[in-house]
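User: Please predict structures.

Assistant: First:
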Amino acid sequence: MLTNNVRSKLKQLQWKGNFHRQSFILILLIASIPGLVTGLVIYWFAVEGVESELRSIHNNQIDQRAQNIDEQLKYLEYATSHWAFEPRFGESLGQIDFVKQFTETYDITKTLLLIQGSHALINKVELYIDGDKPVLFHNEYQELDEQSKANYDQTLRSDKKPYWTDYPIGSDSSTKTLAFIHNIPATSKEPFGSIIVSIDRIKALQLLKTLTPYDKGATFILNENNEILLSSNSTKDSSFVGVLQEQIEQHNKTNGSFQFEYQKDNYSISYGQFSRVGSNWTYVSAAPMSSITAPLVIVSRVILVISFTALILAIILSWFTSNRLYTPIQKLLTKLAQNHEGEGWNRKGSDEFTVIEQQWQLLSQKSELLQSRLVEQVGHIKSSFILQLIQGYFYHYTEADLRRRMKKYGWNLEGNSFTALEIQLTGLGESQVRFTNNDESLVTFTASNIMEELGREHFDQFNVLKFSDFSVGVLVIATEGPNLRKDILLYVDEVTKVINEILKLQVTCTISEPTNQIKKVPHIFEEVRSGKRFRLFENSNQVIDLQELEQEESRNNIYYPFAIEKEIIQAIRMGQAEEVENLLMPFMKELTEKGINEINIQQGAVQLYSSIQHEILHSGIHPHHLFEGKNMLEELSHIREPERIIKWFTDDVIRPYIEKVEGRMNIELKRVIERVITRIHDNYMTDISLESCADEVGTNPYSLSKAFKQIVGMNFIDYLTQVRMDKAKELLLQSDMKINDISESVGYRNSYFNRIFKKQMGLPPSQFRKVNQIEKECKAVRDQ
């Protein structure tokens, strides 16, 4: 945190001139004025155009919905007339005894129910027959009394034309609905009955309300006598419909629109005509302008909010930019003040550069302190590097790369060799000090500290490595020669004495041969681990010098390069045939150098073949099938020259196995990729991804992506894009679907689809469709 004094100093540096304030005002004007002017122009000039467009859209909606109502009423007229001309409702209907001929009565009832269910607007369908016994069919057959007969006689008209009329709902004559009446028989001059189709008043009003799709307004239908047939009024003013009716009567046109002000509210009035049987109806829709222009109000508010937000953003950005223009080193000064708690800030007359100089001196002092601490940690870094080296983590590094890294860590490698030592603690059970299994790490840690302390007295460059089996390793880097061997033996002797005295344990020390190559460091550590097998099976201090032991037993014992064998097996597992061939050369070289007799060399080659055969069996391939039944050991026994042995291993053993494994892997990969391709073609329209496909086939996205590229020849996402683009082109050329629908059907959002289609095809989807249509038309003209 900055102190108050330092913060005051920073402010004085920042505001000692007026350039900062002038820059801030200038940038604010540049950033804010264009945005404000643009917002005001949009608000003033675009509002009127948007309002006009909204009115036009509203009138179009009214026309379309009025046409819908007209079509539904026409359907009722046509359906009723169709049934009226049915033979069932002909002259014979007046001669039927409905009591005796109950079957005919039942069929008529079913027919009426069928008519009633043919349209959602129909509330009920009645059949009135005026005979000796007047009857009425609805849900069931009933005979009428004189009063009811008089009511239904009104439905019979001498002009025989079907007509619309007000019809009472049930027994309540005050509530009426629309009904379409068709006299029967339809071809008779003297009808004796009528089919009465009553409209569901609630549904009719709901349909009528679609002409004014707002919370406020009014809609009604007038007959040819300007009488209201249906009316919906949501203005809470019962006189509003009557006033509108008078306004419509004053207009001589059959359809049109105009604005009308009523009680300080402005309404948009639209009206037109329906052609009904024998008459014309007039529909009227009155919608408040506030409801129509509601989207415009929202847009204008959004414009104002965006403009105000742009002004605030301009102020913030202007402050930020002007601050950077005025004080380009202000950030550096603040950081220096934070890091050093304002040291050196209290000098009078100090400017920015004096402050920076003072803080730089403080940073230099602290840098030197950190450098000294870093040197203390170099030992840990070196030990970690050597431990990774002997564990084989740098197997793929070249000798030059390893030398470069060791020099970076501070080792001097010029003219020096590498020698490995391993100290094995023994006699744990016979020790006077009682150790438990949990003391293993403590004992090893103590022994490593002893070896590190004594190593500083004998070697300039060395590293101590703690192992987990009561053993400690040491890598000595020094100039090779007789004196080095003496120093190592002297060091081993001192370590042995101190461990005997302090830990009361015996020591077995194994010393490797020196090597000049860093790549062979893992090998010499492998040798010292293997060399412990020459230890006498007794509890005493022992020193095993592998260099002397090799000279004594080279003629009697077979030498086998186990470390190189491990590298060969690892290269086979990785399918690196060329790397195996390069490793076989040093393998045979070491084998021929160490094993002088031919039988020793032959046994080493047989041992290598056995290890390779074990790896082949472990992979699930039988050597008998791989080598086509050949006796490989017999073939190997007839080869005498090392070069031929290397060629035999490479051509007859390694390459057939690697090719077999790769072929099996390719077949499996092809099957997996075929499943993925099938899934792409079946689900390209969904949100399909590389991760989901990898989960389905049981692998990870990286392996699937690599295999897909190898088999198909292109990336997963490129193939998915190609499939989607091919389908999109097909829909654009062979269908009339909208661009939005096509983008969704191929799995894209509209904006992203337009962008990626243009990137793939060179032009937008709409232009692509238009160009191809023009080409088709030109081709058709040429063919004619």
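Second:
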Amino acid sequence: MKITVDFEECLKDSPRFRATIEEVEGDVCELESKLDKLVKLCIGMIDAGKAYNAANKQFVNGIRELAQQSTKDEVIESSLTKFAESLQEMINYHTILFDQAQRSIKTQLQTFVKDDLRKFKEAKKQFDKVSEEKETALIKNAQAPRNKQHEVEEATNILTATRKCFRHIVLDYVLQINVLQSKRRSEILKSMLSFMYAHLTFFHQGYDLFSELQPLMKQLGGQLDQLVVDAAKEKRDMEQKHSTIQQKAALQDFSNDDTKLEYNVDTDNGIAMEGYLFKRASNAFKTWNRRWFTIQNNQLVYQKKFKDNPTVVVEDLRLCTVKHCEDIERRFCFEVVSPTKSCMMQADSEKLRQAWIKAVQNSIATAFRDKGDDSEKLDRKSSTSTGSLDSGGEPKERSLKGESALQKVLAIPGNVCCCDCGQPEPRWASINLGITLCIQCSGIHRSLGVHFSKVRSLTLDTWEPELLKLMCELGNKVINQIYEARREELGARKPQPGDPRHEVEAYIKAKYVDRRFVRRPSDEELRSKVVSLSKQEKRLSGNSEHMPPKAPPPTPKLRPGSNASGQSVKSADSGIQNSADGSREMLATTPSNDSLADAEPAETPPMPMPATLPPPSPCKEMVFYEPKEYSPGLQLYWASCARSLPDMAEALAHGAEVNWVNTEEEKRTPLIMAVQGGSLVTCEFLLQNAANVNQQDAQGRGPLHHATMLGHTGQVCLFLKRGANQNATDIEEKTPLSIAVEAANADIVTLLRLAKMNEEMREAEGPYSQSGQYNSNSPTEMQYRKCMQEFISLQLDESE
């Protein structure tokens, strides 16, 4: 309802004018209240809309993840991807609608309330003030006595001036009222009309979007009917097959012949036999593990999981024999014996044992028949010459290179897409972070420097087993939970495939260099984490599978060889009792170059510990003491001992120093605690992140000392491979070699003497070729690397 005030009436200042003014003021006050309420409701609507959009985005991301998981079903993947794109468009339209509501209602009406209504209130204050002054002047003029002329003149002059001021202000006030009454209509209608047009645009856009999507939806509806029919048919077929297999199994149970159910034969792929067997490990505990064995292509191999690379037990069946084993406690056992090692296995029944023995014997006969013309190659393979090193080492290297390494790494959750931009099918990796990368992101990571990221190709480079297992322990999902913990909270946009390189580079630097999205833990959270890791380490230490062995692990079975003068070379076992002083004595107690190629673990009884020399015990039981201060370095310290790579990666992301020293625990470092934990992969992770392999504790012992004292052969190999100083002495003037000799650990004594011999042969042979390049492919170097890698691979296999 429009309320106007007449200008003529305001000059009279009549009761009718005063009544109109009171009505206007009441209307304006009520208008202000209603507008304030409307603005607050608009703000609430916008906030609720933003929350709805955020939840809707998560829902759409869930649809995208489901589409990515359904890559093998093209119909589901393409349909879900299209639906996710359409719903994302609707979210964008909703965002535009709420932005328009912000501009048209909240901002515009707030401006009207703050500007125009404020001017009205100021004009009202001036009008009320001058009205009071006019009333006072009228009263004073009426009270002036007739006989006092000067008072009469003064009262008359004041009244005249007050009336002039009142007329001026009341006219301005009435003008402000009339302008406000006119403007309120245009402002309210303008804001609401703009808001309604925003709704119109929103629904038009949604209608157009789903009109384009409608043909696809109709097509999927038709396909859905056919899918229901096909599913019913497949169900009937599977029920029929189930019934047939069940009847077949019942007949085999009746005939008491279970061999056909327990193994498979696939002649097309060269598989003579495959099935589950129990395998006795070659460690000191002689544990039995159930593995999937296969006789294929003249080889006996086994796997723990289907995606794992097969472990070759016998590379050439022509070099081995098979026999029953009746002299052990377990039933149905048989043994496959090769010139270098033996493998004890157990079947589930006597018929299965006979079937496996017959299959091995048939495969041996077939191999001799099919490859009878390759006797020259067989002689080369069974000899102990230097050339046998290459033929024996190549298959193992190939199994860790190219597609096999790629498949193993991509099988980890989150690794099928680039960790930083989401590009599918990454072919590169950062080995110190444990993530997969596309080619563009890998180039950016290289530019950061190796102190932030070490990049390697998943298809072109050769992958050592310990490095491959390190990649499988982490993965994109684990690392992104650490380095992107606050990304959504900060509103940072993650790059998408096809984004400009400079945007991706800025995001990667913010993520890994500045660590902007890492969630910093509170002191209480850090304390809880450290205490939890220390308790976890105690539980693991109490498990006999992870405790250091009471006796050294089995000694590699080395073939007797001859040195250059024709004299026989002593075995490593005999060399334990000799002094480590002098290169001549060391060379005499170390296997020759020819025998190095055939050095593999054998099933030999563990060497007894001398009664006069008890094995050293650096830290058999770790006790957690309340530290003076909790820090990321302390978290890395205990996580290394607890073998928790995700917690170690989290500590490094929070700024932990990889060579952090625990002054309250004899200056031990995380790498020393990783040795105590017994995990080779944990040591590899720290070394890849620039851990000092020679840093010593308060006793003067480095990681190599501790690995030797605990009998961790694989770790000793790893540290020697990474340049550990085996001549370093502790405060008792003991080297790792003297410690190993005292403990009668034949494996570690042999390894340390091989390393020392290799160093001396480098100096004797000359490490540089004529071109000035270091000759890393010399026979001595290749034999040494192969021997080291076999011990590392053995410990990784046994840690399964």
